[in-house]
């Protein structure tokens, strides 16, 4: 969980000049991606707390899901910066 929290903070800090308004605007403009981020984060949290290893796939599933979350956050960050640059 600390890794994901750090990842989210890192993405938010790296947005730099793009304000919270721009980020919220992107969440509203891309609700499917936003819902995917929320659902995927929930799945990661569930996997991490699960007492079993899902047939040996737990570790890879967590790693791949965290990488997917990172990519989704970067995609939203990119859109926020591009939209910010247009105004």
Task: Describe what you observe in this structure.
By secondary structure, this protein is mainly alpha-helical. The chain has one domain. Helix content is 82%, strand content 0%. It has 4 helices and no strands. It has helices at 2-14, 20-29, 31-49, 58-86.
Write a compact overview of the structure shown.
The chain has four helices and no strands.
Content of β-strand: under 5%
Helix content: over 70%
Low-confidence stretches: none
Instruction: Find the count of extended strands (DSSP E, 2+ residues).
Output: 0
Number of domains: 1
List keywords for this structure.
single chain, 87 residues, mainly alpha, 82% helix, elongated
Annotate the secondary structure layout.
Elements: H1 2-14, H2 20-29, H3 31-49, H4 58-86
